[in-house]
């Protein structure tokens, strides 16, 4: 009895440990993770405080991950742009329709 | 039944440790590494992850069973009978678990298992490649400590005959600091395993990139601050309890905790060079390994009985196991570093000694020099006994004489290094940066020399401390000023942004302020302390020390005693200042405690065989501590022999811990991303207006 209980716990633990080998899916996914240690703000502040010179600044900035520039556009301008594009489309479409009608009329 | 189950749980935990190591190795076998799904790489890593939880659960179960045995006075267990008694107060029954060799090893194993669990969960969540192998290294260490618990120092060992009562915990340990100091120090010590584990993993994976730097730095910071607190708590305990008037005695076991702290401090600085410039990769690996080796060496010193110390456990054969483990780690680490030597080349060189890099290198050499000096002083008595047959005692003078100049140089660097530019600085730029703090510190030097009673050593320490405060203060001022100009932030926003844009740096600066504060306290308390010879006072008689007059009020005994005490004799003393104004509402109460033992006869007064301890009474102010100890008493004439100390500025040592903790917590926060000119204040608006005029489009970056 004194050894039966530990044996039962041990078997249960072993089953729990080995469970991932019995199934197909596994949530463990090791992957490379790039963690930046120097930020752009730090580089700018260091340059302003004279802690790094210009060449060091360029060197550090080159180590930063590439960043996609993103223009700041307002929602209104987006809507305006979409409307303008739509207008152009309609105008083009109507011109095409008119041209086709004329050709048909001439024929 | 329960004790046997405890031992079984430890054995099962060892089995799970082996499974963890085996599963991790299996995951990296060439055939398995690229396999997906069933029996693939990720599945084996998942097995390793599960086994970490099982190890933790089993060791937790064993620890709970041991504490339960203490709480239920289960003297069938030899360890409980040796370290507890029926009269022992509840908190001491709980701390009884770690008051002896085998129980403290079980606690150590539990802390290791807990760290492994945190590492494994964190690594799995963030997908760190280095984590599985690092967890396996921690599991291997757990295997060693758990093995000691299971086969060498088993806390679940049964007594042949069950005694009626236990012997009780060592009376000197029956103090509230016993609840917190040993576990804190253990967490600090055990924490040294984690960075080492990540270093081994990095060597195996050939991966010394930002992930390694970030993860290892975070763990070392955590370990470092816990170790700092653990060491200081030990100082407070010694100061409040032992009654010799001091907080640090260069005791071998104190030194053992200081050595990994020094090497970890060196690492925290050198890792910045790797993060920034790709420098010192091999040096950083070596420092992390050294820190781990020193933490195991400290454990060996404490537990083997080779050194004479108030901290030591009884002499036992366990030292041999630690020495062997130390040897294995040393050889394994050396071989691994040699194997990967080609990967450990620095990506750049230190271009100039007059630079931030140069200052960090100097800092590292000074810290390493301090470690070697402390190590030599600690092991020399043992070495001299082993070689020459005679134990040569290394006194406090050796440590003070060697460490004082090294400490002052390090203190100067805590102020000067932050002012230096990276890569290279010119003498002009250095002078420009140093001018303000240096000239002001020198301007105050005559005054500080006068206040230091014309003692050059003390005045030097105070002047350098002032220099550090001014230098760090100026760094904050310049940073805030720049942010206010650039972003248009208010004072509060600029301060918050400064710290959050670079928490590692400004958190570190706050710790530097703590170092200067601590040096003020150490200098004041070690160079200006007054220690009177013991004086026997009769009721109503007075004693003068410094600006204080002490008036003895006759012997007293408390109405109620704590359960572990057989008797307590108090010498109430009223304190008056130089104008004869009473300073204390209640008198100070230095006392002598007489402890119970298992052989006590009821209602008999203590005799010369009764174990006793002198408990000091302290009146603490920022200027000085009045520290009173009762050396003896005579009930016939109601007299007490009092030893008085006046310890200046000890308060500042304890205060410095706030800076240490606050700075480290800040340094662990991830840096805020973005650009400096992303503010919303007036300067940012000006930038926008300028851009509108020049036709330049405002561009935001996704960072």
3D structure, described in words:
The complex is a heterodimer of chains A (107) and B (703). Chain A has helices at residues 4-22, 40-48, 54-63, 75-106, and one strand at 69-71. By secondary structure, chain A is mostly helical. The radius of gyration of chain A is 33 Å and the shape is flat. Chain A starts with a helix and ends with a helix. With 703 residues, chain B is an alpha+beta fold. Chain B has four domains: 1-169, no CATH class; 175-196 and 204-342 and 357-417, no CATH class; 418-528 and 659-694, no CATH class; 531-648. In chain B, 62% of the residues lie in helices and 9% in strands. In chain B, strands 1, 2, 9, 10 and 11 form a five-stranded antiparallel beta sheet that branches. Chain B has a three-stranded antiparallel beta sheet with strand order 3-4-6, with no helix packed on it. In chain B, a hairpin with a 2-residue loop joins strand 3 and strand 4 (548-552). In chain B, helix 9 (193-205) packs antiparallel against helix 12. The longest helix of chain B is centred in the first third of the chain and has 33 residues, at 210-242. Mean pLDDT of chain B is 88; it is low at 695-703. Classes of the chains: A mainly alpha (107), B alpha+beta (703). Strand 1 (69-71) of chain A pairs antiparallel with strand 12 of chain B, so a sheet runs across the interface.
């Amino acid at each position: 009895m004194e050894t039966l209980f530990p044996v039962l716990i041990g078997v249960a633990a072993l089953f729990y440990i080995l469970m991932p080998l019995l199934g197909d899916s596994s949530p463990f996914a090791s992957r490379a993770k790039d963690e930046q240690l120097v930020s752009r703000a730090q580089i700018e502040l260091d340059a302003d405080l004279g802690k790094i010179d210009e060449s060091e600044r360029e060197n550090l900035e080159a180590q930063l991950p590439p960043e996609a520039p993103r223009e700041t556009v307002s929602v209104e301008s987006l809507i305006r742009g979409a409307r303008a594009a739509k207008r152009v489309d309609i105008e083009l479409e109507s011109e095409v329709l008119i041209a086709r009608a004329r050709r048909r009329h001439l024929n | 039944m329960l004790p046997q189950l405890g031992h079984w749980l430890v054995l099962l935990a060892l089995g799970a440790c082996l499974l963890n190591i085996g599963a991790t190795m299996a995951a990296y076998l060439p055939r398995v590494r690229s396999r997906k799904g069933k029996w693939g790489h990720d599945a084996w890593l998942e097995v390793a992850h599960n086994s970490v939880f099982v190890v933790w659960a089993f060791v937790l179960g064993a620890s709970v069973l041991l504490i339960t045995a203490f709480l239920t006075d289960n003297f069938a267990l030899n360890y409980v009978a040796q370290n507890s008694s029926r009269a022992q107060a509840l908190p001491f029954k709980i701390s009884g678990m770690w008051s002896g060799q085998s129980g403290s090893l079980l606690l150590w194993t539990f802390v290791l298992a807990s760290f492994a669990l945190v590492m494994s969960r964190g690594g799995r969540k963030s997908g760190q490649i280095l984590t599985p192998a690092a967890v396996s290294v921690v599991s291997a260490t757990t295997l060693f400590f758990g093995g000691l618990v299971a086969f060498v120092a088993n806390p679940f060992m049964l007594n042949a005959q069950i005694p009626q009562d236990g012997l009780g915990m060592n009376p000197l340990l029956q103090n509230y600091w016993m609840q917190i100091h040993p576990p804190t120090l253990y967490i600090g010590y055990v924490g040294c395993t984690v960075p080492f584990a990540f270093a081994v993993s990095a060597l195996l994976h050939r991966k010394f990139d930002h992930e390694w730097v970030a993860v290892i730095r975070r763990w070392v910071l955590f370990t470092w601050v816990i170790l700092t607190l653990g060491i200081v708590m030990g100082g407070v305990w010694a100061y409040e309890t032992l009654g010799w008037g001091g907080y640090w005695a260069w005791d071998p076991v104190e030194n053992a905790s200081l050595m990994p702290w020094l090497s970890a401090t060196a690492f925290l600085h050198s890792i910045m060079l790797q993060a920034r410039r790709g420098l010192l990769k091999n040096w950083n690996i070596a420092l992390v390994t050294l820190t781990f080796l020193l933490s195991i060496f400290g454990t060996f010193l404490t537990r083997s009985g080779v050194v004479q110390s108030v901290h030591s456990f009884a002499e036992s054969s366990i030292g041999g196991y630690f020495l062997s483990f130390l040897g294995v780690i040393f050889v394994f680490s050396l071989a691994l570093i040699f194997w990967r030597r080609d990967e450990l080349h620095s990506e750049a060189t230190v271009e100039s000694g007059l630079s931030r890099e140069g200052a960090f290198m100097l800092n590292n050499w000074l810290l390493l020099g301090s470690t070697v000096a402390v190590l030599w002083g600690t092991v020399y008595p043992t070495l001299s006994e082993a070689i020459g047959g005679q134990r040569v005692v290394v006194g406090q003078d050796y440590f003070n004489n060697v460490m004082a100049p090294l400490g002052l140089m390090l203190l100067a660097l805590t102020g000067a290094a932050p002012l230096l530019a990276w890569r290279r600085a010119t003498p002009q730029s250095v002078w420009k940066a140093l001018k303000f703090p240096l000239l002001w510190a020198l301007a105050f030097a005559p005054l500080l020399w006068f206040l230091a009673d014309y003692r050059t050593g003390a005045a030097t320490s105070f002047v350098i401390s002032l220099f550090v405060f001014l230098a760090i203060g100026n760094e904050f001022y310049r940073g805030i000023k720049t942010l206010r100009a650039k972003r248009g932030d208010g004072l509060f926003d600029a301060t918050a942004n400064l710290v959050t844009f670079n928490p590692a740096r400004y958190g570190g600066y706050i710790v530097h302020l703590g170092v200067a504060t601590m040096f003020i306290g150490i200098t004041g308390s070690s160079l200006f302390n007054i220690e009177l010879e013991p004086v026997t006072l009769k009721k109503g008689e007075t004693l003068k020390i410094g600006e204080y007059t002490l008036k003895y009020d006759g012997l007293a005994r408390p109405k109620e005693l704590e359960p572990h005490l057989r008797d307590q004799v108090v010498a109430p003393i009223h304190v008056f200042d130089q104008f004869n104004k009473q300073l204390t509402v209640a008198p100070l109460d230095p006392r002598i405690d007489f402890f119970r033992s298992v052989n006590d006869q009821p209602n008999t007064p203590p005799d010369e065989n009764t174990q006793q301890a002198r408990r000091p009474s302290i009146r603490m102010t920022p200027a000085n501590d009045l520290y009173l100890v009762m050396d003896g008493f005579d009930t016939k004439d109601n007299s007490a022999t009092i030893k008085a100390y006046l310890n200046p500025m000890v308060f500042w040592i304890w205060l410095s811990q706030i800076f240490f903790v606050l700075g480290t917590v800040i340094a662990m926060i991830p840096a805020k991303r973005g650009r400096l000119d992303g503010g919303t204040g007036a300067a940012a608006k000006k930038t926008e207006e300028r851009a509108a005029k020049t036709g330049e489009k405002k561009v935001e970056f996704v960072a």
